[in-house]
Amino acid sequence: MPESSGGRLKRQRRKILRPRRVRGVRPYTLAEVHDLLAAYYGPFEHRPRLSPADELAWTILSQHTSDLNAGRAYDELKRRLPTWAEVLAAPTSAVADAIRSGGLAEQKAPRIQEVFGMVRERTGGFDIAFLAELPLEEAKSWLRSLPGVGPKTAAVVLCFSLGMPAFAVDTHVHRVSGRLGLIGPKVTADEAHDVLEGSIEPGHVFAAHVYVISHGRRICKAQRPLCGICPLRERCPARPEMERKGLTGVADAEAPRPALAPKPL
C-alpha cells in the first residue's frame, strides 16, 4: 500500500538533522569544531587554484577515484586538448583516452562534453565566474541543473574557485560529522551540505571544510582513528564506544598541520 503524505511527513520529522545529545554526550557545534581545529592545525590561506570551469571539470573527473588519478587525468586532458572548445570538438573517444587514468573514462568523457556543451549554450562561452554575482542558492541551482552535477560538485566550484560560502561534503567530511554528532545518524551526504552550511557563519565555511576534511584524512580516519591525539575527543560521542571495542589506532607522532591539496576533494 502506498505511503500517505502524512506518513512521509512523520518519517521526515523523525530524522534528526543536528542532535543535541548523542549517547549522553553534548556534541560540539561546528563553530566550536572550527575553533578547536584551527588552534590545533594552525592557519592557512585560501587561494583559488583553478578557474571555475576548470574546477568543474576537475571535480567531475574526481568522482569515484583518488585525487592522484583525477589530477593525472585532468593534466593529460589539458595537455592534449588545452581549451574547452577543443574538448567539445574532439571525438568522445579522444577525450576518453585523455582521461583514462582517472577511471570510468567511458562515462566521464561524454559527461564532460555534455556539461560544457550546455555551459556554452547557456553563456556563449565557458566562463562561469558570473556565478559569484548570484545569490548562493541561485548559483547552486544553476550548477546543479547541469547533467551529473550534484551538491558536492556545485559546492566545490562555488567555494574553492569563487570563494562563496557553500559547504562541500565528501566521504571524510560526512564520516567526521557523523562521529562528532554535527549531523544526525540518518543524514545523507547530500543532505549534510545544507545542514553543515547552516551551522556556521558564512565567513568560516571554507575554513571549516578544510579543517574537517584534513582531520578526517589524518586523525579521524575510516579505519582505526587516532582518538588519543584528537583535539575533539573530550566531547566526541563516537570515541567511548570505539575505544571500548578496540577500534582506535595509535599515532606515531602528532599529526602535521593541514595543507590544502592542489585539487579540492
How would you describe the overall organization of this protein?
There is one protein chain. By secondary structure, the chain is an all-alpha fold. It folds into 2 domains: 20-43 and 168-244, Orthogonal Bundle (Endonuclease Iii, domain 2); 52-161, Hypothetical protein, domain 2 (Endonuclease III, domain 1, Orthogonal Bundle), CATH 1.10.340. Helices cover 52% and strands 0% of the residues. It is built from 13 helices and no strands. The protein has helices at 5-14, 30-41, 52-61, 67-80, 84-89, 92-98, 105-123, 136-144, 151-161, 171-180, 189-197, 205-218, 239-244. The radius of gyration is 20 Å and the shape is globular. The relative contact order is 0.16.
Supply the number of structural domains.
2
CATH superfamily of the largest domain: Hypothetical protein, domain 2
Question: What is the overall silhouette?
Answer: globular
Distance between the termini: 42 Å
The CATH architecture of the largest domain would be Orthogonal Bundle
% residues in beta strands: under 5%
> Helicity level, as a percent range?
40-55%
- Mean pLDDT equals 89
CATH topology call of the largest domain = Endonuclease III, domain 1
Give helix and strand order, one letter per element, not per position. Answer: HHHHHHHHHHHHH
Low-confidence stretches: 259-264
Number of E strands: 0
Overall SS class:
mainly alpha
